[in-house]
Amino acid sequence: MKIAVPTVEGKLCTHFGHCQQFCIIDTNDENKIVSKQMLTPPPHEPGVLPRWLAEQNVTHILAGGMGVRAQELFAQNKIAVVTGVQGEHTPEDAVTAYLSGALQTGANACSH
To answer: 1-17, pLDDT tens digit by residue?
Structure first.
């Protein structure tokens, strides 16, 4: 899996479209983190981030909130979206919790 986590100041950003960078984390078959890279996304416009993250070979996104249309665009690009991620996680902590089934999620933090 290749998991994208939107970040602001090194922590999970509540709304993926407002992030400063994406932390892209590669995992192996044993659900262990094998590498990570921080990438600055292109300017936010409708439809840009789903295509850009697909070009990075991302398979999953962990986000606090994301609009319905963005979720549809990610699905069209075969990227699974997890919304409602709670707390101020580092990307590594969020991914580790997700991989172990311990990631706490709640309501989608985005209403559009």
So the answer is: 999 999 989 899 877 77
For tokens 């986000």, the residue is 63
Task: Show the 3-state SS of 53-103.
Answer: HHHCCCCEEECCECCHHHHHHHHHCCCEEECCECCCCCHHHHHHHHHHCCC
For residue 13, the enclosing domain spans 2-100
- Distance between CA atoms of residues 51 and 64, nearest Å: 20
How far, CA to CA in Å, does 72 sit from each of 47, 66, 81, 103? 10, 10, 10, 22
**Domain annotation covers residue 51:** yes
Single pTM value for the model: 0.91
